[in-house]
Amino acid sequence: MFHFISDYEYVQKLGRCYKFHLMPMNWTEAYAACYTEQSYLAVINSQDEADYLVNLTNKTPKDKVEGNFLRGAVHLGFQLKKNRWQTVVRNMPLSDSGYIKWGGGQPDGKGEEKCGSMFYNGHLNDIRCDQNLFFICEHEIDLLRNSQILRFGEVFTTAKSLVGM
Ligand SMILES: [Ca+2]
User: Fold this and answer.
1) Does the pTM of the predicted model rise above 0.85?
2) pLDDT tens track for 11-46
3) Is residue 122 part of a domain?
4) Residues with CB in 5 Å of ion ligand 1
């Protein structure tokens, strides 16, 4: 049933799967791309998870990708809503996510950078939502269980409102 989800790497320690997308997109497009893979833009919930994402970013052959996009950061699943940083998973406040290490001087967008990203070193950065970046999707194994369909429904609703479906 989920055979179309490919190129995800299962990380036993974290109990999740991740995929680094090498096709740069803006934040909303990236959000939708993860959704089509029954996933969401990655949300960091621990230092272990941050370390893994940094490792994944480092080992992905990014340098060969050509085009006009911003390098040095990847889109992640958090955004500024009503002056509050919240994750894409059940709108949990970023401050409750378990990982909130901003890069030096970040967030510095003064309301102009309402989307979330991670510098390649794992530190968080606010970024303009129309900026094209690589991005990482996260897949919850729990989402595959029938009992968790409701949780996925919430992600789906958010995706629909974001992409105007
Ligand atoms: Ca910033």
Assistant:
1) no
2) 999 999 999 999 999 999 999 999 999 999 999 999
3) yes
4) 106, 108-109, 113, 125-126
Decide if 11 is inside a domain: no
Q: Does 8 map to a domain?
A: no
pLDDT tens for each residue of 23-32: 999 999 999 9
Distance 39 CA to ligand 1 centre (A): 25
Tally of structural domains, the chain: 1
Residue 161 — very low, low, confident or very high, per pLDDT cuts 50/70/90? low
CA of 32 to the centre of ligand 1 (A): 22
The answer to whether residues 18 and 7 touch, using CB atoms and an 8 Å cutoff, is no
Residue 19 C-alpha to ligand 1 middle, in angstroms?
24
Check residue 7 and give its pLDDT. Answer: 87
Q: Answer whether residue 90 is part of any domain.
A: yes
Residue among 122, 159, 136 nearest 16 (CA):
136
CA dist list (Å): 67 to 62, 64, 123: 12, 10, 24
Helix (H) or strand (E) holding 142: none
Confidence at residue 141, expressed as pLDDT on a 0 to 100 scale: 77
The domain that contains 127 carries what CATH number? 3.10.100.10
What's the token pair of residue 34? Answer: 């993860």
Ligand 1 centroid vs 125 CA: distance in angstroms? 5
Q: Which range of residues forms the domain containing residue 150? A: 24-163
